[in-house]
UniProtKB/TrEMBL annotation, chain A:
<dbReference type="InterPro" id="IPR010065">
    <property type="entry name" value="AA_ABC_transptr_permease_3TM"/>
</dbReference>
<dbReference type="InterPro" id="IPR043429">
    <property type="entry name" value="ArtM/GltK/GlnP/TcyL/YhdX-like"/>
</dbReference>
<feature type="transmembrane region" description="Helical">
    <location>
        <begin position="25"/>
        <end position="47"/>
    </location>
</feature>
<feature type="domain" description="ABC transmembrane type-1">
    <location>
        <begin position="23"/>
        <end position="220"/>
    </location>
</feature>
<dbReference type="Pfam" id="PF00528">
    <property type="entry name" value="BPD_transp_1"/>
</dbReference>
<dbReference type="GO" id="GO:0043190">
    <property type="term" value="C:ATP-binding cassette (ABC) transporter complex"/>
</dbReference>
<comment type="similarity">
    <text>Belongs to the binding-protein-dependent transport system permease family. HisMQ subfamily.</text>
</comment>
<dbReference type="GO" id="GO:0006865">
    <property type="term" value="P:amino acid transport"/>
</dbReference>
<keyword id="KW-0472">Membrane</keyword>
Automatic annotation (TrEMBL), chain B:
<dbReference type="GO" id="GO:0022857">
    <property type="term" value="F:transmembrane transporter activity"/>
</dbReference>
<feature type="transmembrane region" description="Helical">
    <location>
        <begin position="135"/>
        <end position="154"/>
    </location>
</feature>
<keyword id="KW-1003">Cell membrane</keyword>
<feature type="transmembrane region" description="Helical">
    <location>
        <begin position="200"/>
        <end position="222"/>
    </location>
</feature>
<keyword id="KW-0812">Transmembrane</keyword>
<keyword id="KW-0472">Membrane</keyword>
<feature type="transmembrane region" description="Helical">
    <location>
        <begin position="94"/>
        <end position="114"/>
    </location>
</feature>
<dbReference type="InterPro" id="IPR035906">
    <property type="entry name" value="MetI-like_sf"/>
</dbReference>
<dbReference type="InterPro" id="IPR000515">
    <property type="entry name" value="MetI-like"/>
</dbReference>
Length: 233, 249
């Protein structure tokens, strides 16, 4: 075993480039799937608020599936399973356009949407019914009351859970490695195979992941402090 | 499609259930369940110790425990698995099988998450319990052991059960280091058939869904029972702050 020397990795332009590329891909996957998850979560929330039993059932089934099947299995099902059902034309197009990353963003985003929508829903349930009645009495319509009165409070209530789930979405981006996306964990394995400095590479990646996660938690803390009402809960 | 699924299950049910067991290592859903049960059972004492250390005022206890919890919360499980895979043979001097690697990682990871649940349960009890115990002549340690912990741990039982569901879902990551478990078995079937990936992985998802859904349902029912039981005893509704603390891989 060689002596401990993390600089041997960091100062080597080749290894540094591989790790940076990996980190970039991790960010692309995490941010892409976060945006997809959040927009889909709002749609799911709207569906559950709609007065249709059938639509509500669909939303419940969606959340139940995505919360009870492991994320890795969902990714495998998308990448190996669903892709094989697509018409040839679509498969060629996907293979030309980085299919792994597309399916990783899709799989992680669809999965996390279930968690986000549940967070928002329990945030909304915690808003007292008097708020809606008061908003309606002041002349807001149903949509207006939701948009200007209920949702701001719901999001404030849901913030801690949303931040936690955003951190786990970021961590889950490492699962994309299993379907061959060249993100940070994948880059770590590659650098390890070339440099034989396992300890140093793992340490660098662990610190990078930890710092990013702590930054998301800190940003969430700031947001919560800004969103808190003076004298409120 | 459905005929395909039925055929695949009929031809491979034993592999999905126990892997290549009599002729090879135990795998399939049996290995998945054993791995999750063992990891939660071993993580539980770890988590109580971590939670007590996190509540202690001694910096030598507080800071290391806090560091462990934050590392587990901030670093992907996959990265921790790679660490154990690399470190355990160096520390012990033995080549450990993937199953043991996965178990060690899950005990640390689950221990950290469970400790937050246990800590939440202790904090949710309220100061009066500790004060009353001390007034009755208990010391700090014996009050914790006989008065606080039994109540706190009982209250967080549903959260522990949902953490068990998380553990089942997390064992799938063993696939990356070739631990023989359910996902691994499905992958073997897929490698034999080659032409029906969707059907094979759909069966895989379905099995996980059935197992995890029933356990989640059990956790919800247990929680309802505990809430009624506690509120019946004390006459006031109990605030279970720790129940929302579920995590997913």
């Amino acid at each position: 075993m060689k002596g401990f020397d993390p600089l041997a990795i960091l100062q080597n332009p080749e290894f540094g480039r591989m790790l940076l590329h990996g980190l970039e891909m991790t960010f692309v996957i995490a941010i892409g799937s976060w945006c997809l998850a959040m927009s889909l979560a709002l749609v799911l929330l709207a569906i559950r608020l709609a007065p249709s039993r059938i639509l509500e059932g669909v939303a419940i089934a969606y959340v139940s599936y995505h919360r009870n099947v492991p994320t890795l299995v969902q990714l495998i099902l998308w990448y190996f399973g669903v892709s094989s059902l697509l018409p040839d034309q679509a498969q060629y197009w996907l293979n030309d356009h980085n299919a792994e990353s597309i399916f990783a963003i899709l799989g992680l985003g669809l999965c996390q949407a279930a968690y986000f929508s549940e967070d928002l829903r329990s945030g909304l349930r915690a808003v007292s019914p008097g708020q809606e009645e008061a908003a309606r009495a002041l002349g807001h319509g149903r949509i207006g009351a939701l948009r200007y009165v209920l949702m701001p409070q719901a999001i404030r209530n849901a913030l801690p859970a949303l931040v936690n789930h955003s951190v786990s979405l970021f961590k889950n981006s490492s699962l994309a490695m299993a379907i061959g996306v060249a993100e940070l964990t994948h880059a770590v394995k590659e650098v390890e195979n070339v440099s034989f400095r396992t300890f140093e590479v793992y340490l660098i990646a662990t610190v990078v992941y930890l710092v990013c996660s702590l930054m998301i938690m800190a940003a969430g803390e700031l947001l919560m402090r800004r969103a808190a009402i003076a004298g409120g809960r | 499609m459905i005929a395909d699924i039925i055929t695949i299950v009929r031809d491979n049910w034993l592999l999905l259930l126990v892997g290549q067991y009599p002729n090879g290592p135990l795998g399939g859903i049996a290995a998945t369940l054993i791995l999750s049960v063992l990891s939660i059972a071993l993580a539980f004492p770890v988590s109580v110790l971590l939670a007590l250390a996190r509540l202690s005022k001694a910096p030598l206890l507080y800071w290391p425990a806090t560091a462990v919890v934050f590392i587990a919360r901030g670093v992907p499980l996959l990265m921790l698995i790679l660490w154990t895979y690399f470190m355990v043979p160096i520390i012990t001097g033995y080549n450990v099988p993937g199953f043991a690697t996965m178990l060690v990682t899950l005990v640390i990871y689950e221990g950290a998450f469970l400790s937050e649940i246990v800590r939440g349960g202790i904090l949710a009890l309220g100061r009066g319990q500790m004060e009353a115990a001390k007034a009755l002549g208990h010391g700090g340690a014996s009050a914790m052991l006989y008065i606080i912990l039994p109540q706190a741990l009982f209250n967080v039982l549903p959260s522990i059960l949902s953490q068990f569901v998380s553990a089942i879902k997390e064992t799938t990551l063993g696939y990356v280091i070739n631990v023989p478990e359910l996902t691994f078995a499905a992958n073997q079937i897929n490698n034999q058939l080659l032409t029906k990936p969707f059907q094979v992985f759909f069966i895989l998802a379905l099995i996980y869904y059935v197992v995890c859904w029933s356990l989640t349902r059990a956790a919800t029912l247990l929680e309802r029972r505990i809430v009624t039981k506690r509120s019946g005893l004390s006459g006031a509704p109990l605030a279970l702050t720790a129940t929302a603390a579920t995590v997913e891989p």
